[in-house]
TrEMBL record:
Keywords linked to the UniProt accession: Transferase
Residue runs in coiled coils: none
GO molecular function: CoA-transferase activity
InterPro entries per UniProt: 3-oxoacid_CoA-transf_A, CoA_trans_fam_I, CoA_transf_BS, NagB/RpiA_transferase-like
SMART domains, A to Z: CoA_trans
Listed name of the protein: CoA transferase subunit A
Entry-linked Gene3D superfamilies: Glutaconate Coenzyme A-transferase
Family named by the database record: Belongs to the 3-oxoacid CoA-transferase subunit A family.
Organism of provenance: Parathalassolituus penaei
């Protein structure tokens, strides 16, 4: 069954084929469950003109934020962008194109893309700037806008544990956007904290079936906390 083994031995191999002007879908929410080593590899590769689809763009100096430092990102499709001063600066300077998308709509864009659904109607955003230029239809007396799904050239994902066939389990809130992102990449790359042999994972606990995963790599992670709040 060697042909089903998805494990690669280096980050160079994990992101082989990623080139300028591609679309990359990234899992994570804030700094929780981000594929931090795959992001670092993208920076190392120096690819430019990327369209990045992710809930947010990391923070200054970590996560997707590091790709802004070398002007590698041309466009961000995101829901929340308030934790990154460099992001704000590049947006206001006209260096970065930003498509703000309601969070649930962004999740559904990924899910629909992974399911082969080209577009869907949602009431979210109707009557706001989000709806500008989009088709509107009425269903049962309510107005809906047409949103196109998203498929990335690459999807980069952070998992907790996987078997060698690419069946992935996410840990607690690190699940967030990762399962959706994993379905929506033409090439899906997952980095995990532990890789086990096939048959060792409880099938009922698997979140992403291996059919969606093209490459799997074992990583070590900083897991930086975005905002630490403790009692005085």
């Amino acid at each position: 069954m060697a042909g089903f083994d998805k494990v690669v031995s280096s980050y160079d191999e994990a992101l082989a084929g990623l080139t300028d002007n591609m679309t990359v879908i990234a899992g994570g929410f804030g700094l929780c469950g981000i594929p931090e080593n795959l992001i670092a590899q993208i920076r190392k590769m120096g690819v430019k003109g990327l369209t990045v689809v992710s809930n947010n763009c990391g923070v200054d100096g970590f996560g997707l934020g590091i790709l802004l430092e070398d002007r590698q990102v041309k466009k961000m499709i995101s829901s929340y962008v308030g934790e990154n001063a460099l992001f704000e600066q590049q947006l206001l300077n006209g260096e970065l194109e930003v498509e703000l998308t309601p969070q649930g709509t962004l999740a559904e864009k990924m899910r629909a893309g992974g399911a082969g659904i080209p577009a869907f109607y949602t009431a979210t955003g109707y009557g706001t700037p989000v709806a500008e230029g989009k088709e509107v239809r009425e269903f049962k007396g309510r107005k809906y806008i047409l949103e196109e799904s998203i498929v990335g050239d690459f999807a980069i994902v952070k998992g907790w544990k996987a078997d060698r066939y690419g069946n992935v389990i996410y840990r607690h809130t690190a699940q967030n956007f990762n399962p959706l992102a994993a379905t929506a990449g033409k090439i899906t790359v997952v980095e995990v904290e532990e890789i086990v042999e096939p048959g060792e994972l409880d099938p009922t606990r698997i979140h992403t079936p291996g059919i969606y995963v093209d490459r799997l790599i074992l990583g070590t992670f900083e897991k930086r906390i975005e905002k630490r709040t403790v009692r005085s």
